[in-house]
Amino acid sequence: MAPRRASGEGSITRRRNGKYQGALRLPDGRRKYVYGDTREEIRRKLHGLIHAREIGTLADARGLSVGEFLDQWLQSGGIGLRSSTWRGGQRADLSYTL
Length: 98
What we know:
Strand order of the largest sheet: 1-2-3
Structural class: alpha+beta
Low-confidence stretches: none
Strand content: 15-25%
Helix content: 40-55%
Shape: elongated
Number of domains: 2
Mean pLDDT: 77
């Protein structure tokens, strides 16, 4: 049996199909789910979600159009992206949403 996770670290469960599911409670009370083949993969994904939640980059696309979502993403600076990828995102945003 796996050790208990601390409060705020999310939960990991095994699904009937043999895959794993992770759930993390968001500040507004909703849950964000991630799926994967191994418990370790889910642990890494949850760790990434926790980090994104802490620094404020966890995407929330509810009620946003594609253009609005891209604007929000570009304003965040495309954290974790190389500068060439970020510039490409800006060009794609302008050419496809205008």
